[in-house]
Amino acid sequence: MGFRKDFLWGGAVAAHQLEGGWDQGGKGPSIADVMTAGGNGIPRRITDGVLPGENYPNHEAIDFYHHYKEDIALFAEMGFKAFRTSIAWSRIYPNGDDAVPNEEGLKFYDDMFDTMHKYGIEPVITLQHFEMPYHLAKQYNGFMDKRCIDFFVTFAKTCFERYKGKVKYWMTFNEINNQAACETAHHMLQEGAVLTTDDNPDNQFMMYQSGINELIASAKAVQIGHAIDANNMIGCMIGFVPVYPATCNPKDMMEYTAANHRKYWFADVQCTGIIPGYLEKYWERKGYKIDLTDEEREEIRKGKVDYAGFSYYMSMTTAWREGNDEYDFNEQANEARHVVSDVVKNPYLKCSDWGWPIDPLGLRYSLNWFTDRYHLPMMIVENGLGAYDKKEADGSVNDDYRIAYLRNHIEAMREAVNEDGVDLLGYQMWAPIDIVSASTGEMDKRYGFIYVNKNNAGEGDLSRSKKKSFDWYKHVIETNGEEL
Ligand code: BGP
Question: Is residue 340 pLDDT above 90, yes or no?
């Protein structure tokens, strides 16, 4: 009973959200570097390049670029077996289409991985986590251009070759499916480096075309990664928000099915190698002529992933609505494009301060959903609570709400292992140290076991201190999840 002996307990972050050093060591600007700070309920703006006078929180972030040794030492103190981060693409290829990689960038990650191994921490690496070189967005419109497939594959190959023997667990694209349900300018830029506006009627077509191009790139990278090192475990990374039908009305059940198709077709492709029939039919109905050749379909078939990685923060509930084609429903209502939302409130769940429904049992359901659909090993590569923390006069942060959130989720995950027999490789909590929020650009939306002295206004000396949850998680790892 219980978690496997080599269970990968750890934490997850992404380069752009903590490294800072946005223009140091030969790094080029990434798409994250042109996103301004938003706020709780206030969207981030995308500027036309890096402009003077704007506030770009990712430029400095928490300066992990210069602090990674002390931060990794703190993760080691908690007993981490794994640490998930990403390789900032524009540190390696500053423009994305450069002829040769930037040695200083490659060396930076060599040193970081060596530091992890010194403590017996296994790196879990994402190749593209919302941080494509900005030049690829500006010059090519990102993955709308097939040449970006080759640029990504070159980047992936460079990383597989360079870090052979140092990195075994990989993921190609972070939350590759987020764009599917949202199709906003923010998501189209974050996931595919496609520059658009919220009200562009072509967003959905572009999402399918750029998404297919990313899936081809992912499948090619999987094959190359296996050829370079047969030990490599290369996964997908799905932003998973399990869908519940609002009622047992059969129409709600079909709406639930449609929402699963709409949100998780990326997972179906990466885990099965097949373009699902529901997708082909939808393109046909919409008149979308997706550029996808027989050779590319074959690449997708051969480039199936080894494990299903997914993030889990919340569930969502959908309902059928009179007079609407279910596939035109969207997760986010978009009045400018006459898109109606099918998302309804779940009366059984409470929400976080940012309105994210908290649902620990949904994690057990998610592990079963992936197992029933794909029968692959899995890794939870993100799960955590963004909250306002209060630093007491004595410097302590008593984050019992964070401990409660994580305890309940880990308990649900343990039941999925013990009762349902799911094959789970590890759990990467998001994020072990306070970092810049991806959706809002805030610092005050905190996830960490480690407090970083910096606020939304950018004030603070970046000093690190332990929160109450630090020792709690340490004990969880020590007892391999027995004592929560
Ligand atoms: C996921 C992303 C992460 C991360 C996390 C929390 O969608 O993969 O990059 O940021 O969500 O979201 P946020 O930072 O917006 O609170």
Answer: no
**Cβ–ligand 1 contact at 128 (below 6 Å):** no
Q: Cα Rg for the chain, rounded, in angstroms?
A: 21
> Hey, whose CA ends up nearest to atom 9 of ligand 1?
438
Could you say which DSSP state residue 142 is in? Answer: G
Nearest-angstrom CA–CA distance, 258 and 253: 9
CB distance 143 to 193 below 8 Å: yes
d(CA 367, CA 228): 30
Most confident residue range from 112-116, 246-250, 323-327: 112-116
Q: How far apart are CA 192 and CA 424, in angstroms?
A: 29
Distances (CA, A) of 329 to 147, 168, 259, 337: 32, 39, 8, 11
pLDDT-derived band at 64 (thresholds 50, 70, 90) equals very high
Token code pair at residue 117: 């191994």
pLDDT band at 329 (very low <50, low <70, confident <90, very high): low
Pocket test for ligand 1, best of 62, 171, 178, 311 (most atoms within 8 A of CB): 311
How many of the other CB atoms lie within 10 Å of CB of 23? 14
Share of the chain above pLDDT 70, in %: 96
Provide the whole-model pTM.
0.96
Q: Give me the pLDDT at residue 357, please.
A: 94
Burial 349-369 (b: 16+ CB within 10 A, else e): beebebebbbbbbbbbbbbbb
Phi/psi of residue 428, each to 5°? -110, 105
The residue whose CA is least distant from atom 5 of ligand 1 is 438
Cα–Cα distance for residue pair 221/269, rounded to 1 Å: 15
